[in-house]
Amino acid sequence: MSTGFFGDVAKIEFEGPDSTNPLAYRFYDKDEVVMGKRMEDHLRFSVAYWHSFAWPGGDPFGGQTFERPWFPQAGGTDTMDLARLKADVAFEMFSALGTPFFCFHDADVRPEGETLKESIARLDEIADYFGGKMEETGVKLLWGTANLFSHRRYMAGAATNPDPDVFAYAAATVKSCIDVTKRLDGQNYVLWGGREGYETLLNTDLKREMEQAGRFLAMVVDYKHKIGFEGTILIEPKPQEPTKHQYDYDVATVYGFLRKFGLENEVKVNIEQGHAILAGHSFEHELAMANALGIFGSIDMNRNDYQSGWDTDQFPNNVPEMALAFYQILEGGGFTTGGTNFDAKLRRQSLDPQDLLHAHIGGMDCCARGLKAAARMIEDKALSGPLEERYAGWKSGEAKAMLSGNGTLEQISEHVLSNGIEPQPKSGRQEYLENIVNRYV
């Protein structure tokens, strides 16, 4: 039964590039085959429960702008009835969009209880409700996670908190969320260290806090194996906000952390475009780094306003950016358990229910165009050909010997001096390659 929240919208269909229907896909044709795989199976789209259904439209300078029927009235109490209504609307939107997955934090889907025991009971109850909705619609869970950053108890972090009671409370919370994620056949579980960092070293034992974070993650991995959860454990790199220094700053930092605690073969990364920008990188850099280190897992798809110095979480609309991102994803073999999760939110002036549909339709079309451009570049060897040519010198026997471990510094020096080697620089042809990319988008 329809909730009526989106009016008479039933199903968003693919109508092609010439369509002027704002409630239709122009480029996302889920059944189109790209590089031997259906587009839906390449992109594995997911809707973020928190930004779409729990976020009230506030920003650092102002409060709620959205009015939703599942939000408690002013001064009212959040209830399980409202949580069920929220779920009804959410699954109605998932079905209308045809997205195969969704994601959630525990705090987004159920009201906070007076005790942790009550909060867990409410999560279990709404998980049962989700189960029925998932069976009815065919929508699956890409990943679950725990909100360990919003409540004041986490103001000094969760796993890295100086108070062991907070560490324990967070551990119990994560256990309950992994249990629910497994019950709902989630394909991943994400740890997002929203406040796992510090503001000042004047009151921080950095080494202790990093050890706490390592122990916490090791217990999560142990528990995953104990209960037979077959999904992937993911860490989401996050620089700067809200804390000044984050322990999970970027992909390279996370990899170093995983290596330190012997978890590099157990945990992968969920990379967000907005976080990559805040870390001073491009999205494709973080994706390429994750592939190079063997820890690529999934992505949160959004963009930042490049004139703002904070995480604005806007829906993607830049096709060249998407083409370069999906080029790296396809070059790395594509998603396995991961997917493209829209960790993006409406602008706080976009008040209408259908704005949620327009945002996701535009984002999905943008990603589809980027995927197709990336696939054509790979099939044509448009970038890999020039790249192979640039490193062709390393195919020689002498070059291979320098990296084999058998050659010594003295031998290399003797080879250079005796053969009179004088390197001649060659152009990197960056502008030429940029022009190639633009031809495909």
TrEMBL record:
Main location, first listed in the record: cytoplasm
Keyword annotations: Carbohydrate metabolism, Cytoplasm, Isomerase, Magnesium, Metal-binding, Xylose metabolism
Cofactors named for this entry: Mg(2+)
GO cellular component, one term: cytoplasm
Catalytic-site annotation from UniProt: H105, D108
EC number: 5.3.1.5
GO biological process, alphabetically ordered: D-xylose metabolic process
Cofactor binding note: Binds 2 magnesium ions per subunit.
TM segment ranges: none
Superkingdom of source: Bacteria
Compartments, record wording: Cytoplasm
Protein name: Xylose isomerase
